[in-house]
Write a structure and sequence with these properties.
The protein is about 40% helix and about 15% strand.
Length: about 240
Amino acid sequence: MAGLRVLLVDADPQGSLSQGFFGSAFVEALTGEETLAACFAESSAWRSFANLPLPTGLERLDLICANHTLAEFNVPTPERTESQQFAIHQLLAEMTAYDVVLIDCPPNLYQCSWNAMLAADQVVIPVPPEDFGTQGLRLVHQGIEQASHLNPRLQLLGHLVTRCDSRLVIHQQYQSKLRQLFGAGVLDTVIPEAVAFKVSLACRQPVSQYSPRSLAARLTAQLSHEILQRATGTTLAAMA
């Protein structure tokens, strides 16, 4: 909406991001050659990936899809598949038409997340303010540190408190604890559980399009500004 050309990369074999735009029937019918799985295939070194990004129907926003065909490549020991570690990095080297690339990762540190970290400049860690959401942070931090040896550009941009219910005392306490532990390493924006997110997803639209005046849309815009400010030192308004 600020005029930047954005590429979304779905690196999760569940394909939730892809289904959010195109629906499950379309996404599950895609072949591996039409999804992110193509860059992990043995033939990837001899092909172009220019046709992988699909227009989402929203101006300046394209998406590289994922589905079940990616699952076979998301192995738990990515360091043992050395030839594939930079598959996403090599893919993105072709995507020069975009100002911003956002990679959606699965909730594990297998091949797809490892690949994403070797291709990225910054990492945002979504953290639900509950036990199961915070227990794995140490391993994620270790993964970022290990990946930075192969990708010196990589930095932790921050932790994003998400799916928060401010009415719950336990959520308030966990959010407070996160800020005590990581200080400025926790983003100021907090994303709540909101009906607008769920309804806009069912309607296959970003919340900023479906319900632009909702709190969910306002917080999403605020999050975009904050991430870009932290990542580049400038604002969306300055870049537009």
